[in-house]
Protein 1
Amino acid sequence: GENVEQHPSTLSVQEGDSAVIKCTYSDSASNYFPWYKQELGKRPQLIIDIRSNVGEKKDQRIAVTLNKTAKHFSLHITETQPEDSAVYFCAPEGYGQNFVFGPGTRLSVLP
Amino acid sequence: EAQVTQNPRYLITVTGKKLTVTCSQNMNHEYMSWYRQDPGLGLRQIYYSMNVEVTDKGDVPEGYKVSRKEKRNFPLILESPSPNQTSLYFCASMRSQRGETQYFGPGTRLLVL
C-alpha cells in the first residue's frame, strides 16, 4: 500500500512569513494530490489539489507543486495569517481504492 | 445544503456494549468511508464503500463492521467496543472513487471505558 510521509511534523512561523510542507509518497501510480486543512475541533477540508498532468497550481496565498519523478508534492502558504494555524494533511491517491493520509503537519502562525 | 452528517457527536460507553455511529450524505455520492483519528497518527481508514452493497477493509478494520444498504447511509458498528477504540471518528464521502474531493462529517468523539 501507499506509504505517505510529511515534513516537518510541526512548523512555527511569524505572521507574514511563508510556510512550506512537503509530502512524499511511494506509489508511482498516484495521480491526484490533495491537501486538507483541519482547524482545531473541526473536520478536515480540502484547500487545494493538483493532478499529475500539472506541475503547479495556485489559489491566492496557497500553492501546490508536484514532482512526480521524485514522488513528492508540497504545500506553500505565503503571507501567513493567524487563521492559517491548523493541521495540514496530504492524501495522495494511489492505485487502490483505499486512501492513506499523511500523519499531518501542525502549523502555528505567531502574531 | 450539501453535507455529511454523523450521530452521535459524542459518546461515552463501556467495554462490550454494542454501538452504532450513523453517517448520512445528501450529495448522491458513490464513495463513502470511515476514518479514525488519533494523536500523532493522522487519519486512518477503517472501511470504505464504493457503492451500495460494496464494502471493503481499509487499514484498521479490526473490531468494526459497516453496511451500505442505501446510497446515502453508511453506519459504523462496534459489536464489542474496547478501550483501544477510544478515538475521534470521521465519516467522509466523495462523488466517485478517483480524483475527487472527500467531504467529511463533523466527527464523533468516542470514549470506551
Protein 2
Amino acid sequence: QKEVEQDPGPLSVPEGAIVSLNCTYSNSAFQYFMWYRQYSRKGPELLMYTYSSGNKEDGRFTAQVDKSSKYISLFIRDSQPSDSATYLCAMSAGGTNAGKSTFGDGTTLTVKP
Amino acid sequence: DAGVTQSPTHLIKTRGQQVTLRCSPKSGHDTVSWYQQALGQGPQFIFQYYEEEERQRGNFPDRFSGHQFPNYSSELNVNALLLGDSALYLCASSPALWGNYGYTFGSGTRLTVV
C-alpha cells in the first residue's frame, strides 16, 4: 500500500463549479503538505503549502489538512478551463527527512467551458 | 528570472548504456533534488544535493548517482540503463532548508530506454 493515496479521476466539471480534490496518507510523521498542478509535458507547479493541520486560502484555492484523519483536501472555487491539469498532493516529514517529498499519483481534472 | 532549466528535453538510449542529465536551479536556490516520474504516476524522490553533497536518498539503486557543482547546478547519472528507467526525470530546487515548503520544478527530461 502506498503512503499517499489519491483518487486518479478523471474528474470533469463545468466551468464555475467548485472542485474538491483529496488525498489520504498513512505516515503519521508527515507535517508539511503541498499541492502541485501539472500541465501536460510540464513539471509540477507549486500551488499551496500548509504546515500541520488547518486551512489556508489563496485566491480561488483553499487547502485543508486534518492530521487526525490523515486526510488533506484542495478546493478550487469558480473553476476555469485553464485549471484543467493533473493535481498532485505531496507531503514531507521534516527533520532529518526535510526536503524529501512523497507524492500521490495525481488527479486529472477537466473543466469544460 | 529564469526558473529551473533542464537539459536535454528528450533522450533515447539503449539498454545497458549510461546517461547524464543536467539541471540549473532557480536563481537564489542552492538545494537541488531529483525525481523520477513514470507515466501516470507521481514523482518519486531520487536524491537531494546541498553544498555539493548528497543529503538524502530515496529508494533507488546505486546505478543512480549525482553531483552538485559549486554554482549549485547538478547532474544525474544513470548507469546500465534498464527499460524500466524510461520516465520523466524532474529536477527541483529550493532555498536551503525550505524543501518542506515546496519546490520549483523544471519541465523535465523525458528519457526513453529501448
